[in-house]
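Quick question: who can interpret this fold?

. . .
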Amino acid sequence: MKTLLKYTLAFFLLAITMTFTACSSDDDNAPTDELAELTKFKEFSNETHTIELYSHLGSLEQGFNEISLRIKDNASGNYVSNAEVNWMPIMHMAMMNHSCPKSTVEKVTTNGTLYNGYIVFQMAQNATEYWDLKVDYTINGTDFTATSVIDVPASVKRRVNTFTGTDGAKYIVAYAEPHHPKVAVNDVVFGVWKMQDMMNFPVVNGYTVKIDPRMPSMGNHSSPNNVDATQKADGGLYEGKLSLTMTGYWKINLQLLNAEATVLKGEAITESVLESSIFFEIEF
């Protein structure tokens, strides 16, 4: 009888262990919601596929835009998980066309169907000038393409600066994060690119973006504990710390310095210089 009880107890404990192990394994492998916090703002098609575009804002705006996309097979309704994707944004103007800074397009997760990257629209659309987006992709060795006009309205606050530096090069400096600033020392992310030609805008490496946040309506006071933005690795965005001590309108004055610490654009704030020629705006 004792032997029977012993084996019954052992079997019971083994069953419990297997149950918890199975639950843990299922939880670890449970699919995540790829579209969490994303909103679809555009879709366009060719004969074979439909391209769906998503963003945190549910729209695009002048400046830095993180954009996600999915490719749906029109025949089956399934989403493609094995594509190689590239994109090319083009601004169509009266006398010329040009592109803008953009990243490569990468899979978000290995087994998922979402692809992600960023595009920096340095200009907004207007009544006669517009942006379109061409998406080129390859699936199982077959090439496809789809193109559509996209809406890029002007940003409410300044999010991007385009200028010629003292070295004669044309630069684009854009605000990327935080999406929702708060009264705290915020992690900030900027981007710096140089115009190589009308279609190519490579990331600038090894520079520094100096920041000096000011509240014009409050005596132009600044804040403590700011950290200038620098890169962690070549090809990446620039990261720093932005101290916001109260809610309201802030002007984030900037200076762009090259690797030799030479100021290429922007002015230090003094009693007589109240704002830099390059800046971002935040209001919350």
Summary: The chain has one helix and 18 strands. The longest strand covers residues 63-73. Residues 2-28 form the longest helix (27 residues). The helical segments are 2-28.
